[in-house]
Amino acid sequence: MTPQKIALNLRPGDKTTFQLQVRQVEDYPVDLYYLMDLSLSMKDDLDNIRNLGTKLAEEMRKLTSNFRLGFGSFVDKNISPFSYTAPRYQTNPCIGYKLFPNCVPSFGFRHLLPLTDRVDSFNEEVRKQRVSRNRDAPEGGFDAVLQAAVCKEKIGWRKDALHLLVFTTDDVPHIALDGKLGGLVQPHDGQCHLNEANEYTVSNQMVRAGDPSP
Fold first, then answer.
1. Per-residue pLDDT, 67
2. Using CA atoms in the order 22, 27, 33, 36, what is the torsion angle rounded to 10 degrees?
3. DSSP secondary structure string, 127-141?
4. Cis before 87 (ω within 30)
5. How far is residue 6's CA from residue 13's CA, in Å, rounded to a whole number?
6. Partners of 74 in beta bridges
7. Can you state the angle between helices 52-60 and 119-128, rounded to 10 degrees?
8. Which of 41, 17, 32 is nearest to 72 (CA)?
9. Which of 1, 34, 90, 189 has a 20 to 30 A CA-CA distance from 60?
10. pTM value?
11. How many CA atoms lie within 13 A of 105 on its CB side?
């Protein structure tokens, strides 16, 4: 980037403009984590991204040969009023829904694929996914974003790489204080809470990322 240093003498309230020239470092490493909403309304979108990894890699390799791709998914907190909590919905929250009667249990966040340069692994992981169902329109994406950011070792973020997080959803996320509607009062501690299966373990215990203390 040039210039590297600029000296200005301005009065309070004055404005000025200047030009910067920025050039991308050649073959700079890039880590891209794809975080996808797997609630029922995203079923068509899931079908459309079966080969997304190949397309992403083709485009990114026009910019760098040092590219890695990861994948994670989210739905929402599996508590009322965000999800269907009656016992009969615990194994299949789509029971009784005529348009799509079978889906997987609801979950907060799942880290499915650490960052890798194997695009075929990304495509394979996406093909294995099935949608779930929550009760309200907003989704629990902010919990997932926080875990993707702070679980650095599990995700595989490289210190010297450009970090990109692609967040895919078709609705607004739940925000601060929403968790209290479900009786959650413990503020989020901002730490990584993924178990050995890479599933978010405190989705139903802590209020949403960014919630203030009660």
1. 95
2. 80
3. HH---B--SSSSB-H
4. no
5. 18
6. 37, 109
7. 150
8. 32
9. 1
10. 0.79
11. 12
Would you state the pLDDT for residue 86? 79
Q: Residue 71 has which token pair? A: 């994948």
List Cβ neighbours of 25 (8 Å cut-off, separation of 6 or more).
Answer: none
Q: List, for residues 24-58, the tens digit of each pLDDT value.
A: 777 899 999 999 999 888 888 888 887 788 888 89
Mean pLDDT of 94-118: 91
Radius of gyration of the chain (CA): 21
pLDDT greater at residue 83 or residue 156:
156
* Rounded Cα–Cα distance for residues 42 and 36 (Å): 9
pLDDT at site 198: 95
Cα separation, 16 vs 120, in Å, equals 50
* The CATH number, out of the four listed (3.40.50.300, 2.160.20.80, 3.30.70.20, 3.40.50.410), of the domain defined by the range 30-182: 3.40.50.410
Query: What is the per-residue pLDDT for 214?
Result: 34
Which helix (H) or strand (E) segment holds residue 55: the answer is helix 52-60
DSSP 8-state secondary structure symbol assigned to residue 51: T
Structure tokens that stand for 183 in this block: 């009786």
Average pLDDT over residues 127-136: 84
DSSP 119: H
- Provide the pLDDT for residue 129: 93
